[in-house]
Design brief:
The chain has 7 helices and no strands. By secondary structure, the chain is an all-alpha fold. The radius of gyration is 18 Å and the shape is elongated.
């Protein structure tokens, strides 16, 4: 198995770890409209790992959407809301929705894919426009999507943990 295929197999875990690191250390980052002269380790760490994470997010999106699998995560784009509604009804009856099939859980995973892509693209756009009037706009979008990602990760962790508990039963 080649290095790229090994990376692709571990992409989900690597992205999760990078996202958690970048979110948990973002309070140490002091960047605004440009990389300032006194930028330190935390600033450059955030930029470097952010670029790596952005590229890995694109790879992960491609991995998840190839061979027509995009319908699994983004079936709602085709108006396929039935599986999501069915899973919500199951939850009201205290039944967990099935993982890996079209429905609520893959809808949630698709939102995560889009959030990671949006965070990466807005971070790269900030980097590309630093020093211009657009930089602060891209920075504010980057921060907004990052805040959404925090809530997403909490929801994703709860869903994953609930399925882990279900498997243990």
């Amino acid at each position: 198995m080649g290095l790229l295929s090994q990376l692709m197999e571990k992409l989900h875990v690597l992205l999760a770890l990078l996202a958690i690191w970048l979110l948990s250390t973002s309070g140490q980052v002091h960047l605004a409209s440009r990389i300032h002269d006194k930028a330190g380790w935390w600033d450059y760490n955030h930029i470097a790992l952010g670029v790596v994470t952005a590229l890995m997010s694109v790879l992960f999106l491609v991995k998840c959407c190839r061979h027509g699998q995009w319908r699994l995560y983004f079936g709602w784009c085709l108006g396929q809301f039935g599986p999501i509604a069915k899973d919500i009804r199951k939850l009201t009856q205290r039944q967990l929705p099935a993982a890996g099939s079209p429905g609520l859980l893959t809808f949630i995973e698709g939102i995560g894919l889009l959030l990671m892509l949006a965070i990466g693209l807005t971070g790269l756009a900030w980097l590309a426009t630093q020093g211009s009037g657009l930089a602060m706009t891209w920075r504010s979008w980057h921060i907004l999507f990052s805040e959404y990602l925090i809530w997403y990760l909490i929801l994703h962790a709860i869903a994953s943990f609930s399925h882990f508990l279900e498997l243990m039963r």
